[in-house]
């Protein structure tokens, strides 16, 4: 290939005169090789080694360096037809060397056509899984190391931009269907008009319903004139599939049709009948008994793989554990396959993503914990062991309802399996441990619920209903074996009667719901144990809304056990139906039940709630509107006063009241009387307003006159010294009352005869804080020093101070 391995020396450069001679020798070698290929007798081919085949020197050297010498049965029959350019349908047992049966013809046909980088893409190899594509690419690198072709691996999980830059220079591409179609649609520089060969490994899987549309789109891009090779352990012969791929008179090459079985003879195949709730117990007991083995366990879904892996990893069986499913990142998947290939003792939990074509060295056991969907899937699964004539063992776990149908399908494919029993002494139950772990670890409990739903879904979508009977499975016991407190409700279990239930009358649905509620009430009244109360707890702060849907699947608009409203964050979903009543308990209802009368009932009579309908009605705000008094439609005039809407009456009613002239006269008289009454009221209101204004004006004038002229009357008037007076005079003053202090004197003065208001001087401001008259300052001083006299001398001193 284009990459030169370490330790390999580059060929010496040729001189200009030697180049034409080299080209001439290569042309002669290619012509001789083409002649030898044409001379092959495909019907009487007795080639047993690669050296006896007409192969080019680079291919022969690559096979020898990779230690491939002897041809297998499928290679003996398929390689000569492929070298001659025929289309091939190849079917052979797993581990029989189908990869080399199409890689060797790919290299040889491109070599004989003198393919270069300038010629573009020459061969396209499609694989259903990334792991198988990687394995094919590694084998291609080994046997094509001496060729000058450029090869590429195009799978998902890598940068599309990096692949796009190198895609135009590739001669051979190994890819998965989805990624290849993406490049065909989006990469402008990718040209496939000159394609010579199309190879489909595991063709039956590629052309089934999962890849049918993708493969059809890829084939539309490819040229019609090409060679097509299809290889698988279980090959299809459908005319429709062959027509879709544009095969031209294909040669059907089969190795195991004449054999007694489609599986290797060195494979020991057994099955055990175990109820669904005991599968994990049996698997745990098996792992504990085979700690020094290399085991591959198949399950039906990635969620089951993750749950079983996490549970067993916590319990530590004593053997290294790995898990592989399609939802992992590409780097993690590649790392896990490399680890499992390199290890001697380990257990890999996987889905059918590794069921086809992968070559894991020295696998001792293949355990199928879940029943395969058909006999072909069974053959591919057990093909991971007993490869290349080595020994291997396979065990199939069957539920009692699956035994008869699956054995019949295997018998039709000439696959003989023998029934074995589990030794009860070595059987261990891990049910209590799982329940304990799920209770302590909410995330583990969540994984268990997802695993339960995915398993039930996988059984529900199976086509062969003779094998997979969902109604007969003990789902409650199965959920308990996973450590769950109860089986999650699953919407799709309604099945075909979902539409009939939707269109059924409410009475029929409510009657069935009533029976369920009666059963639930009886279960609630039963005594609860410590473990029952333990598993009724909910972890409300851990999971998102979709977790609440797994716990309970109530009707729309109701709050479930987790406190969430079903469909809370769903797009275009109903949060709460207005016709539904609130919770009867009233715990989450801030709205109190008003004591409103029923329709047609005396309001004073006591309210009797004798049915659930009335109870719900009193809890519903919308339904309460029926019991409330309906209002009247009002209109408002220009002044904002409300009036009832005037409605026109019928002509018959108008004529009953008399002729129009008399009604007009009555109307005018009534309106005139109404206007006169309104006029009198308006005049009285106007006179009241005028009288009130006049009284207010007189009160203001009276207050102003009293403030200007002081009243003469009994009582003393105190004239304090002011500027312009040489002394102060007190007339008829009560000296004893005055001597008691300013407070008493001021009270007498203000209460009996208010003092005259003094005009402000020109030097005084409004506040009066900064400039004050000498009289005011002296008065302040007198007020401070004035006190009640105790002796006659004190009285004389005070009097002389006031008079002087």
TrEMBL record:
Residues 1-33, 501-531, 583-605, 647-723, 744-804 are annotated as: Disordered. CDD domains: DEADc_DDX10, SF2_C_DEAD. The keyword Amino-acid biosynthesis does not apply. GO terms for biological process: rRNA processing. Residues 8-19 have a biased composition (Low complexity). It catalyses: ATP + H2O = ADP + phosphate + H(+). GO terms for cellular component: nucleolus. Keywords: ATP-binding, Helicase, Hydrolase, Nucleotide-binding, Nucleus, Ribosome biogenesis, RNA-binding, rRNA processing. Residues 686-697 have a biased composition (Basic residues). It is found in: Nucleus, Nucleolus. Its main location: nucleus. It comes from the Eukaryota. A motif (Q motif) lies at residues 48-76. SMART domains: DEXDc, DUF4217, HELICc. Its EC number is 3.6.4.13. Residues 279-438 form the Helicase C-terminal domain. Residues 79-253 form the Helicase ATP-binding domain. The Q motif is unique to and characteristic of the DEAD box family of RNA helicases and controls ATP binding and hydrolysis. RNA helicase. This is ATP-dependent RNA helicase. It comes from Lepraria neglecta.
């Amino acid at each position: 290939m284009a990459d030169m391995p370490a330790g390999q020396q580059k060929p010496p450069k040729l001189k200009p005169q030697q180049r034409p001679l080299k080209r001439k020798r290569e042309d002669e070698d290619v012509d001789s090789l083409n002649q030898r290929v044409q001379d092959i007798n495909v019907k009487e081919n007795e080639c047993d080694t690669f050296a006896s085949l007409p192969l080019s020197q680079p291919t022969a050297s690559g096979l020898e360096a990779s230690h491939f010498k002897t041809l297998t049965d499928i290679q003996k029959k398929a390689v000569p037809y492929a070298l001659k350019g025929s289309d091939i349908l190849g079917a052979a047992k797993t581990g029989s060397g189908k990869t080399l049966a199409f890689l060797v013809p790919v290299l040889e046909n491109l070599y004989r056509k003198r393919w270069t980088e300038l010629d573009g893409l020459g061969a396209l190899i499609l694989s259903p899984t990334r792991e198988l594509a990687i394995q094919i690419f590694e084998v291609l690198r080994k046997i094509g190391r001496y060729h000058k072709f450029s090869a590429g691996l195009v799978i998902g999980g890598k940068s599309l931009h990096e692949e796009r830059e190198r895609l135009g220079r590739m001669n051979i591409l190994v890819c998965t269907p989805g990624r290849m179609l993406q490049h065909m649609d989006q990469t402008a520089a990718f040209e496939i008009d000159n394609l010579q060969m199309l190879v489909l490994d595991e063709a039956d899987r590629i052309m089934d319903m999962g890849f049918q549309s993708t493969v059809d789109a890829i084939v539309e891009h490819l040229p019609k004139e090409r060679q097509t090779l299809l290889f698988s352990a279980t090959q299809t012969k459908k005319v429709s599939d062959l027509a879709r791929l544009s095969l031209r008179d294909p040669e059907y090459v089969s190795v195991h049709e004449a054999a007694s079985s489609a599986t290797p003879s060195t494979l020991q195949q057994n099955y055990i009948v175990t109820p669904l709730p005991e599968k994990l117990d049996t698997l745990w007991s098996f792992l504990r008994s085979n700690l020094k083995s290399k085991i591959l366990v198949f399950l039906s879904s990635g969620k089951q793989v993750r749950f079983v892996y996490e549970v067993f990893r916590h319990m530590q069986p004593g053997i290294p554990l790995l898990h592989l499913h399609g939802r992992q990142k590409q780097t993690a998947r590649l790392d896990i396959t490399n680890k499992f290939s390199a290890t001697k003792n380990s257990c890999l939990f996987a889905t059918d993503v590794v069921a086809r074509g992968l070559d894991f060295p020295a696998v001792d056991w293949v355990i199928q914990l879940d029943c395969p969907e058909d006999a072909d899937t069974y053959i591919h699964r057990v093909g991971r062991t007993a490869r290349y004539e080595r020994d291997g063992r396979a065990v199939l776990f069957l539920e009692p309802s699956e035994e008869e149908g699956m054995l019949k399908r295997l018998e039709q494919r000439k696959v003989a399996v023998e029934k074995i029993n589990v030794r009860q002494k070595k059987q261990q139950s891990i049910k209590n441990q799982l329940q304990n772990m799920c209770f302590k670890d909410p995330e583990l409990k969540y994984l268990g619920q997802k695993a339960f739903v995915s398993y039930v879904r996988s059984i529900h979508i199976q086509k062969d209903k003779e094998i997979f009977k969902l109604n007969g499975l003990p789902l409650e016991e199965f959920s308990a074996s996973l450590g769950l407190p109860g089986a999650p409700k699953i919407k799709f279990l309604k099945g075909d009667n979902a539409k009939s239930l939707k269109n059924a009358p409410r009475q029929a649905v409510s009657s069935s719901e009533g029976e369920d509620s009666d059963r639930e009430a009886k279960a609630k009244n039963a005594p609860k144990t410590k473990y029952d109360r333990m598993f009724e707890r909910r972890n409300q702060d851990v999971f998102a809304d979709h977790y609440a849907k797994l716990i309970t699947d109530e009707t729309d608009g109701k709050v479930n056990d987790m406190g969430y409203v079903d469909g809370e964050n769903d797009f275009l979903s109903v949060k709460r139906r207005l016709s539904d009543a609130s919770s009867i308990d009233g715990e989450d209802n801030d709205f109190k039940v008003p004591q409103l009368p029923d329709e047609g009932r005396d309001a004073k009579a006591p309210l009797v709630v004798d049915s659930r309908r009335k109870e719900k009605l009193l809890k519903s705000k919308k339904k309460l509107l029926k019991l409330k008094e309906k209002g009247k439609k009002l209109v408002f005039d220009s002044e904002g006063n409300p009036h009832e809407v005037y409605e026109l009456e019928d002509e018959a009613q108008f004529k009953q009241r008399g002729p129009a002239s008399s009604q007009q006269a009555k109307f005018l008289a009534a309106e005139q009387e109404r206007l006169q009454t309104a006029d009198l009221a308006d005049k009285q209101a106007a006179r009241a307003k005028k009288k009130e204004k006049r009284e207010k004006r007189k009160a203001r004038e009276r207050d102003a006159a009293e403030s200007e002229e002081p009243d003469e009357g009994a009582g003393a008037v105190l004239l304090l010294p002011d500027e312009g007076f040489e002394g102060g005079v007190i007339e008829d003053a009560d000296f004893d009352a005055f001597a008691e202090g300013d407070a008493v004197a001021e009270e007498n003065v203000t209460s009996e005869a208010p003092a005259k208001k003094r005009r402000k001087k020109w030097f005084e401001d409004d506040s009066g804080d900064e400039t004050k008259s000498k009289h005011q300052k002296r008065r302040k001083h007198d007020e401070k020093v004035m006190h009640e006299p105790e002796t006659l001398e004190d009285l004389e001193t005070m009097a002389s101070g006031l008079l002087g």
